[in-house]
Every structure is written in structure tokens, then in C-alpha cells.
Amino acid sequence: MSDTTLTFLIMDAPFEQARTTTAFRMMEAALEKGYNVNVFAYEGGVSLSFALQQPHANAVHGRTFEEEQHPLTREWIAALHKKAQEKGLVFDWVNCGLCVDERGVNEAIDGCRRGGPRDFLGWANQSNSLVIGTR
User: Fold this and answer.
1) Burial, 31: exposed, middle or buried (Cβ in 10 Å; 0-12, 13-18, 19+)?
2) Which range has the worst mean pLDDT, 37-41, 95-99, 113-117, 125-129?
């Protein structure tokens, strides 16, 4: 297990900004390099791990559900959990509980947990942190 941990704070809701994809790529790269990763999901970011996300067809492009292969953020997060586990690393995802309640996205995928800003503060004091802001 690595002694180095990177902490991310992510705030964008799923499918809204390229920042989310960039953040996931950075997390994957960190795991690939052997770093432990903490993620604090805040504001709209708590919806990224929402277990009830559903893929859809794309009628505009004339693609069926199967052809569209719409990526879901919950699947990306599950893949990051799996990668960390396979490499013997930590991937800890915490959703802000207040933000979860505001948005009604209480059902998170396995491996994600509820917490609060205190979790992010603790991580920030113990690791290198990166905030992926909304603007």
C-alpha cells in the first residue's frame, strides 16, 4: 500500500461538465501510479454515485439503448473502487450527507459512504488535495 494519498473534492453533478470526466481520469491515473485516493463529493457531486442512475437510448442519433452504451458515473466510480482493490490501494468516496438529503440521492453504490465536510477537512490536513470547483 502506498504512503501517499491524494484527496479530491468534486462538486459537479453527473453529465453536466467535462470537469467530472477529467477528475475521474485524474483519480484513475493516481491509482495507476500507486497513490491512495480520497474523494469528497459535495453539492451536485453527490449524485455521481447514485445507484439508481439508468442508461438510455439516443433517439436524436437513432441509436438504441444497446447501441448508445451510455456511460454512467456510478459505473466509473465502481471501476475505480475495483482498481484500487486490485492494486491494494485505498479508494475512499464520501458523499456530503447534507447535500445527499437536499437532492434525495440517498441510494449510493457499494463502497461509497455518507459523511460531512469534517471528512474533507481531515483528509486535507493529511494529504495533497485538489478541489474540482464548479466554476
Assistant:
1) buried
2) 125-129
Look up residue 78 and give its three cell numbers.
Answer: 465502481
The grid coordinates of residue 40 equal 469528497
DSSP 8-state symbol, 72: -
Q: Which three cell numbers stand for residue 59?
A: 433517439
Residue 16 near residue 44, CB atoms below 8 Å: yes
Give the model confidence (pLDDT) of 83-103 as tens digits: 999 999 999 999 999 999 999
Q: Which helix (H) or strand (E) holds 24?
A: helix 18-32
Q: What is the pTM assigned to this prediction?
A: 0.88
d(CA 39, CA 123): 9
Q: What is the dihedral of CA 100, 105, 106, 110, to 10 degrees?
A: -110
pLDDT digit string, tens, across residues 49-72: 999 988 776 777 777 767 766 789
Residue tagged 480520497 (cell numbers): 38
Residue 106 has pLDDT above 90, yes or no: yes
- Residue 10 CA to residue 118 CA, distance in Å, equals 15
